[in-house]
What we know:
It contains nine helices and eight strands. By secondary structure, the protein is an alpha/beta fold.
Amino acid sequence: MSWKLKLAALLLAVMAPSVLAQTFIISDIRVEGLQRISAGSVFSALPVGVGDMVDGRVVGSAARSLFATGNFDDIRIGRDGNVLVIIVAERPSISEINIEGNKAIETEALLDGLKGAGLAVGQVFQRSTLEGMQLELQRQYVQQGRYDAAIETEVIPEPRNRVTVNIDVDEGSVASIKHINIVGNDVFADDELRDLFELKTTGLFSFFTSDDKYSKEKLTGDLETLTSYY
Length: 230
């Protein structure tokens, strides 16, 4: 169970006894705190409706259903007579995403990756998704040999419950290859096998060719070449 669902359970546990201890038939449902999300979206997510009989168990199920939509940071459910009152705090939507400092990975590719993970203009902002993408982006730079790459994010609140997401990329430098060691080769000499590789150690012309820069893709290709050679 996520911490938000646990929080929902805790909130329900400390609610007024009139909500939890007494069973009642819903005469109406009132939703407060909505800004962007329609009341219809809330009603469609609820497992109960007008005319249904509810108790503490049903109220708990309703809170969990609303949290599961991912649209709310906080949900409180109470009772006003036979009216079920739902008070929500919406998560903000993303109004803008700015990316700076990236060269090795194009901005459009980064935006597509963010969109695929659920971070795009107009979508509901979830910090956990942003943090996950931050780690994934760092992993992609590591695969390119950029071990000192750093990703910083900033979330700026905007009017009307929106946020701007700024992503600052420090790509760092690509690691250079100092040595290529081959172990276990008896048939072919080290130099003969190293000549097969696209990856090279730093040499006189490496500044121009960049063939001494580590790349996971190149390493994978070199290993396949080595296997084929045998």
